[in-house]
Structure formats: C-alpha cells, structure tokens
C-alpha cells in the first residue's frame, strides 16, 4: 500500500493549480491581501512557490523536521520574518499555512482512485504536516517580533538620551522616563563619547523628565557620574523636584554631586566655573541714546 506522503505528493502534483486557486480564494476571503501590505500577485507567488517545494519534498520524506523539508521551512521562515516586520498579527501570519488545509483536504477527498483507508491516511498526514509547518511559522514569527521590539527599544532609548552641547565645554543630558540597566548603559556610552568628542569640562544631567528616583535609579546615576569624572568632566544634576528630593532623603540616597533645581541654574553654575558670564546685550536704540547724552 502506498505511503500517505506519497499519496499526498501525487494529489498535489495532479491538482496543484486547483489547490492553489482554492487556497488563494480562502486567503482573500480572510483578508490576507488587504491593508496594502501585500498584493494579490505577491501572495499568489508565495503560494505557488510553497506548493512547488511541497510537491517535491513529499516525494522524498514525511518528516517535517528532516533535511528534505529544509527548503520549505526556509521559505516559511522568510515569509514569517517579512510579515513580522510589516506588522502582521499572529493570526494573519498563521493563516497562510492553515488556510491550505481545506483546499488540500478537498483535493484528497476528490480522489476516486483512493480507498477509504488511503483517504484517511492522506488526510491525517496532511493535517499533521500542516500543523507542524504552522507551528514552525509561528515560532519564527515570534522570534522575529521579539527582535523587532528589542531593536525598536534600543532605537527609542538612543533617541531619548540626546547629549546637547550648551556651550564650549558644557554638555547637557536631559533624561526622560525610567532608568534601567540597559538604558543606563546607552546613556553612559552617549555621554562619554560626547565628552571625548567635545572635550567638555562639565556635563549637566537633567532629570526633570524622570518620574521617580529610587535606590536603583540613583545607583545608575552614580555610575554615569563616576564614568564622566574618569573622562575628566565634572557633573551637575538638575531638575530634582520636591517629591523626588523627599523620596531620596527618605531612602537615604546620597548622590555626592552638586545639584540644582533647574537646568538654567546648572548651566549658570557651569558658566561660572568656566569664568564665563552671560550679560544682556544693549539694544541699538539704548546705545544711541547714551551716546547722544
């Protein structure tokens, strides 16, 4: 008696065009080609490639995890990664594989040359195979989404920790949001690199946008301050709100660094340390009046 995967391979070979049409119809009914992320022609090409590889693979093996199925797993991995990047939902991604079931089952059921036992074997083989391939698709999709999220978090962390040059020798690092270990590392790297590039003598770390300061956050700040000092730059903390000050006192947190209420106060102190003074420029009218007097 023929093996179930051989029966499936024969079924796909004899009915490939019909299976593809029914598969694509079910995908369109489920809205797989809507939203502008993929067009009907691209979806058709992906389905055609899948069936072509499946037909060839089924003639060699029934082990979805084996080497014969590697090209098919790679195709599904590429599709899953692209859908993860394009923002597809898990359901929309899994639908590509699982919607093939009905078309394949229907093709098997139409085989008049199969006995009842052969029909049952082929149907069961198709079901278990597509289930395994669907799970593989979801595994790759999940890993890809996690990679996208991690990359976006890094990019957001970098964008939310800009180092601004306020004056020659004075840098400002405005912090917004919660400080954790990973973000502290980004903050430290950005600040140290800016100190090296500009040769700054002072770095103002403004925490106006930090919602809370606990013991862990204070430790992260101390690490950043210590690293900046090793690079030859003195640090000034600004933006400590009354609530945060009370919390720090209650926790017994000692920053051991000069602090100012506002960024402007910290900037003025840094200018003073550099023997710089900001004065109000006289308007041309005032200067002319004084000269005329």
Question: Overview of this structure, please?
Answer:
The structure is a single chain. By secondary structure, the chain is of the alpha/beta class. The chain has helices spanning 4-29, 40-58, 70-86, 90-98, 100-109, 116-159, 181-198, 215-230, 242-251, 263-273, 284-292; strands spanning 164-167, 170-176, 202-209, 234-238, 258-260. The chain has a five-stranded mixed beta sheet, sandwiched between helices. α7 (181-198) links the parallel β2 (170-176) and β3 (202-209). It is elongated and about 100 Å long. The model has no long low-confidence stretch (mean pLDDT 87).
Summed up, what is this model?
Residues 160-274 form the STAS domain. The protein contains eleven helices and five strands.
Task: Please describe the topology of this protein.
Elements: H1 4-29, H2 40-58, H3 70-86, H4 90-98, H5 100-109, H6 116-159, E1 164-167, E2 170-176, H7 181-198, E3 202-209, H8 215-230, E4 234-238, H9 242-251, E5 258-260, H10 263-273, H11 284-292
Parallel strand pairs: 2-3, 3-4, 4-5
Antiparallel strand pairs: 1-2
Helix pairs in contact: 1-2, 1-5, 1-6, 2-3, 3-6, 4-6, 5-6, 7-8
